[in-house]
Amino acid sequence: MKQINEEADAEEQSLRISIDAKATVKAGPFARGGKSRVLTKAVDHDFEAKATVTPVGIFLPASDELFLYGVTSKVTSDCLVDRLVDWWKTVKDRFSQIKTLVINVDNGPENHSRRTQFMQRLLEFVQQYQVTIRLAYYPPYHSKYNPVERCWGILEHHWNGSLLDSVDAVIQFASTMTWKGNHPVVTLVTTTYPIGVKLTKEAMEVVETHLQRWPSLEKWFVDIPYAHGMRNELSSSKGRYIRPPFTGIRTKAEKNADDRLVSIQEKR
């Protein structure tokens, strides 16, 4: 992991980012510990929350930039990739030279490398924005080394002793925290994301033909390379397969996956 990160930071056409979601915050008049210069009254039991907000962070270690998204829905695979898309749209003009995104991430349930919807959405990102993605996962019990994790401690310290009694209060406190002297870019996300979205086994086999898993480390290091001419082979809504133009060169795995899925669609 250290070698991968150092190589990414040294390569002019690579950009390393760190992605993670913080623990969900209950919005309400609840005591959070900490101290305040202002007398603050809070309930001593966690009654039903008015709402919940889950901070999702994208951190750029090289420039110490932090982008925070306050998500009011469940944080799903689609939610995480949508945040990646939102972030990239805001910064891609600054990083026009970037050909590879190296993503430091923990092995959470919604973003591990066997999560079918997560991998499909990342493949779509690669196809749309024409950049290669390299996923670099921290092993179990080592997610604290994920760079964005350092920001969560600062955020928690910043709002401890304060009442986060509304979604607006959570967003406001997040906006006023500082990391290395800079405020994060904070966005409220109110989109509702359904849970349990996944691909069929056959559709995931097609996705796998575009993934390069490192030998002996298949779960922890995965490349999703951009190849000129690759285009949407999966329908994002139903995981249906669209036959790509024939190039004259096909791997055995691609041919088998293609034949199986075309046969399935004909039966439907």
Please describe what this structure looks like.
The chain has 268 residues and is α/β, with parallel strands linked by helices. The protein is built from seven helices and nine strands; from the N terminus they run αββββαβαβααβαββα. The chain has a single domain, classed as Ribonuclease H-like superfamily/Ribonuclease H (Nucleotidyltransferase, domain 5), CATH 3.30.420.10. Strand 5, helix 3 and strand 6 (132-137) form a beta-alpha-beta unit. The radius of gyration is 21 Å and the shape is globular.
> How many distinct folded domains?
1
Question: How many distinct beta strands?
Answer: 9
Largest sheet: 9 strands, mixed
Order of helices and strands: HEEEEHEHEHHEHEEH
Number of helices: 7
What is the third-level CATH name, the topology? Nucleotidyltransferase, domain 5
Question: Helicity, in percent?
Answer: 25-40%
Whole-Å distance between the termini? 45 Å
List low-confidence stretches: 234-268
